[in-house]
Amino acid sequence: MTTLERTVGAEVTRIEGHDKVTGTALYAYEYPVPDALYGVAVQSTIARGRVRSVDAGAALALPGVVAVLDSGSDGVPRLHPTDDPELSVLQSADVAYRGQIVAAVVADTYETACQAAAALRVTYEEEAYEVELRDGDPHIFVPDTVNAGYPGRTEKGDVDTALATAPVTIDATYTTPPEHTSAMEPHATIAVWDGDTLTLYNGDQGPWMTAGAIAALFGLPEGAVRVVADHVGGGFGSKAVPRPPTVLAALAARAVGRPVKVAVTRQQMFTMVSYRTPTVQRIRLGAERDGRLTAISHNALQQSSRLTPYCEQTVTATRMMYAAPHRRTIHRLSQLDVPTPSWMRAPGEAPGMFALESAMDELAYALDMDPIELRVANEPSVDPESGNAFSSRNLVACLREGAARFGWAGRDPRPGSRREGRWLVGTGVAAGNYPAITWPASATARAEPDGSFTVRIAAVDIGTGARTALTQVAADELGVALDRVTLEIGRSVYGSAPFAGGSMGTSSWGWAVSKGCRALAKRLDEVGGQVPPGGLEAHADTTEDVRARKDLARHAFGAQFAEVRVDADTGQVRVDRMLGMFAAGRIINARTARSQLRGGMCMGLSTALYENLELDPNFGDFANHDLASYHVAAHADVRDVEAHWIEEEDDQLSPIGAKGVGELGIVGAAAAIANAVHHATGVRVRDLPITLERVRTGLRR
Amino acid sequence: MKPFAFERATRPEAAASLVADSTEAVYLAGGTNLVDLMKLGVTEPALLVDITGLPYDRIEHRADGGVLIGALVPGSELSGDRGIRERFPALAEALLAGASGQLRNRASTGGNLLQRTRCVYFQDVTKPCNKRSPGTGCSAIQGSHRDLAVIGTSDACVATNPSDMAVALAALDAVVHLRRVDGSSRAVPLADFYLLPGDTPHRETVLQPGDLITGVELPPPPPGATHYRKVRDRWSYAFAVVSLAAVAATDGGGALREIRLALGGVAPKPWRAYKAEQLLAGQRPTEDALRTAALAEFASARPLPQNAFKIGLAVDLITATVRDLVAGEGR
Q1: What does pTM read for this prediction?
Q2: CA B146 to CA B149: how far, in whole Å?
Q3: Which residue intervals define the domain FAD-binding PCMH-type in the entry (chain B) (predicted)?
Q4: Which of A20, A216, A265, B224 is the most exposed place for a label (fewest CB within 10 A)?
Q5: Which fold has domain A17-25+439-547?
Q6: Alpha-carbon gap, residue A37 to A156, rounded angstroms
Q7: Closest partner CB to A569 (pick from B236, B309, B320)
Q8: CB pairs under 8 A between A and B
Q9: What does the alpha-carbon distance between residue A142 and residue A332 come to, in Å, rounded to a whole number?
Q10: Distance (Å, rounded) from C-alpha B116 to C-alpha B234?
């Protein structure tokens, strides 16, 4: 083979970019499936109780309506219980929250199905319900473990004494609202049964894992369900596991004996496909006068539905960010008659680090210390709780290099010290982190006699650039040009692989791709480089490799800087610029990595200033459920957003050396903006989003 | 969506008779709001009469400086019209502060006047709303009302009119031209065009069945400077939290000889702050005078817990905007 420039690290443009901008890339709902019918979900209008009756008369009378399904319908398959009760769609008349699927209509057109769904008359036995997250409610509990298996509570040393004796303390409560992923492509599924095998064209972050989950639900053997997710229009966690609409499509298709398409409307998304839990977080910090922390206490209250005690890992970042001899972190959960929350970009770290990094800024003011120096002073040498060494930890480098690029030096820390006409200007900093996770995966690499290569892996590209990055990994391992390698992803039949979540895709899939390509290259060498007429193939599975890794603390880090201006007349906040400096291991594709990091920062801006699902206490759902009333940052809100990284080599991750950048960019961004708003105005907003009325409460006039 | 019939009208008479023949017929222009509401099941017309072929698509500038804006002129054209930009800058500013470029290309001037509230309950057919289903109750008063009105409301409804354009038109003393079903015409000052909710929040304007808006007339531009300033939660594509169209002119002694204040985001209709205007007329626009007058305007306000901040915000907005207008008058 000829020697080629390595492509890893280069600014390779997205391989499927042309297909996407010209509209030829197929998303789930667009697959041409003959004879498909259209399924539309009917959602409960009560928060708790039971469906008493479903009057389908008017709906069934409409021409084109094929079936009305509810939990009592004969044709509805009985599903096997799994560990996700949300997926037991139409299995019982019980209603656990407003917006739960209680019935569905299947018709020959989408319009008819919608009309019939509106004509369905559902009556309920309504029960008293509780939907408001209130601290102090007697049913609140501390879970033993939370999402991703982290302990619900940790404690080290004597926090109470340390706080009582610390010369400087901070005790503040921060809140974050429920938020919604609102991916560009609403969830959609086409379900096609062929005997006892099921094909799902699904907006999906994890085709292989979804296939397994749906097979278990329908009592089918492994492999009987195939998931196709060639292109996915964003997910941010909401498509990482199957959600009820996917099950509805499969179930309805089974019931009517024809393929069924289900497209979730934008409005339906807000109750059907999960959301980020609200949090109430109390942080207490104790410090010496030189800034060294003696005690850290972080207590986070969150909510879940009655169906399942999903508890987000909100305090886990606090467990490893800063050194302190005395420390306590606690999650508390309130199960309410609300939709089930789940993963949204950096679940846990995003809201948790808003609180911790706001509190660190408050401490810096209490100490009259530069907030960067405060963080540097509390840099731990090992993971403070486990005592494990860090595989690499470059937070200080991010803070220093970020400060230099941002122009932090010489900043007058006094709040309200910069005024430009009617604008109050301020800057803020916050640290970020995200665990560097790697899961086992499998891949198959194939050489053809014509000199081309195909690599198959059940990875998925939800807009991240994964397809491109994995092609680079493969081309480098094979020592060939990019255009000779085709990465086939997005299909469960390509074998075991984790979802696009936890920022672990590049590391996990990349390792399997790399291992498969190495094995293929070795086989090619064995046959003297001559590919036989039938081609050559090699398969790789990284289960043992991942298991064999040392016990280390593996994390990516970041430093976020923001400059904001606040209209002194009105309290409106404008983010003039953001700068993120990151340490995320090896960057495979500079272009798509930068895009991911900047996207995360924009989402952090959106979290800081706009996103807010308003719980409606009288109904139990979210009052705002479209993109006109649930605000996300739009073009005019995003000005100068820069993402940079330091060169970081970490050989304790995987042969890929990447830590992942999908979530890192959002962590700390909201705190940097809140800290900048404080610097600009003197107003400390501890409740997200930072609305103009919250800023105005503290503006002097 | 409920199935509906569709007819295209090429003459006003035909449009009127089509609509007059059906109790469930509505005119369709840009459709940027109506079609959304149909998809949501909020509005379920049996017949849509497409009026985009009618001859109300011109902007006529008159010798006296006034202008007649055809009801079908899209927002993008109106905001880009040189005469409007030069003589009625607040109108151009208001248009450009609303919606998006794509929507402004479609949305008509007449339709803009008739767009419906974005109250989340009005748009959610699973929840009570007196405006959508009279007599069912108001979900907003005990629910989510942060974006809703603080003045001119009733126990039945606290919805706001969402239009930016109409706020500027209110400050410019615009007159709405109507064609009645019988072919006669009628001119209604914008100030009288909208109704307050009272016990009948489903009735929003003085329009009678079959009435067709043919145009909006602006009298010659007022003296002094005009400005539309919109406070919103994000920097584009958001309805006003509070907005203000202001006209201000001072005499040689620095007293206000012309002052007009129209507010958006605070009331069920574009809210002319007549009381504040009266208090300020002939006065020097000091910070104190402006604040006192603006506060007096809200003496009859009925704020709710989540939106009480709008009063202070409106007072600050009036004070700052008039201050800036007067300061910039000489330039």
Answers
A1: 0.98
A2: 8
A3: 1-223
A4: A20
A5: Aldehyde Oxidoreductase; domain 4 (3.30.365)
A6: 58
A7: B320
A8: 82
A9: 5
A10: 21
Candidates B90, B100, B116; CA nearest to B236 is B100
Q: Is the pLDDT of residue A1 over 80?
A: no
When the candidates are 3.40.190.150, 3.40.1110.10, 3.90.1170.50, 3.10.20.310, the CATH number that belongs to A31-128+184-234+239-272 is: 3.90.1170.50
Residue ranges of the domains in chain A?
A: 17-25+439-547, 31-128+184-234+239-272, 147-178+276-436+552-696
**Is A663 marked active-site?**
yes
| Tokens of residue A447, six digits | 């050489």
Q: Residues A357, A385, A477, A663: which is the catalytic one?
A: A663
Of A111, A637, A693, the CB nearest to B235: A637
**Does A637 sit within 8 Å of B234, measured CB to CB?**
yes
Fold of B5-50: 3.30.43
In tens, the pLDDT along A68-79 reads 999 999 999 999
pLDDT in tens, B272-304: 999 999 999 999 999 999 999 999 999 999 999
Q: Is A569–B127 a contact, with Cβ atoms under 8 angstroms apart?
A: no
SS (H, E, C) A430-469: EEEEEECCCCCCEEEEEECCCCCEEEECCCCCCCCCHHHH
Asked if B233 and A701 come within 8 Å (Cβ–Cβ), the reply is no
Optimal mutation site among B35, B316, B318, B319, interface A, most CBs of chain A within 10 A: B316
B183 contact A CB<8A: no
Q: Are B142 and B164 in contact (CB under 8 A)?
A: no
Confirm or reject contact between B184 and chain A (CB < 8 A): no
CATH number of the structural domain B56-331: 3.30.465.10
Residue B320 CA to residue B242 CA, distance in Å, equals 13
Using DSSP, state whether B237 is helix, strand or coil.
coil
Residue A513 parent element (H or E): helix A505-526
Which of these CATH numbers, 3.30.365.10, 3.30.465.10, 3.30.43.10, 3.30.360.10, describes A147-178+276-436+552-696?
Answer: 3.30.365.10
Residues in A closer than 8 angstroms to B238, CB to CB, are: 631
Topology match between the domains A17-25+439-547 and A147-178+276-436+552-696: yes
Residue B139, chain A, CB below 8 Å: the answer is yes
For residue range A224-261, what is the model confidence (pLDDT) as tens digits? 999 999 999 999 999 999 999 999 999 999 999 999 99
Q: How far apart are CA B18 and CA B27, in angstroms?
A: 10
Cis peptide, bond prior to residue A689, ω within 30 of zero: yes
Closest-CA distance of chain B to residue A610, Å:
7
Please determine, for residue A3, whether its predicted confidence score (pLDDT) is greater than 70: no
Q: Which of A424, A683, A692, A696 has the highest number of chain B CBs within 10 A, making it the mutation to test binding with B?
A: A692
Chain-chain contact of A619 with B127 (C-beta, under 8 angstroms): yes
Average pLDDT, chain A: 97
Closest CA to A102 of A130, A84, A125: A125
Do the interacting molecules here have an ipTM over 0.95? yes
Q: Which two tokens stand for residue B63?
A: 């010798």
Buried b (16+ CB within 10 A) or exposed e, A497-508: bbbbbbbbbbbb
Judged by a CB distance cut-off of 8 A, whether residue A635 touches chain B is yes
Q: How confident is the model at residue A641 (pLDDT cuts 50, 70, 90)?
A: very high
Name the token pair of A327.
């420390």
Phi, psi of A487 (to 5 degrees): -95, 120
| Domain coordinates in residue numbering, chain B | 5-50, 56-331
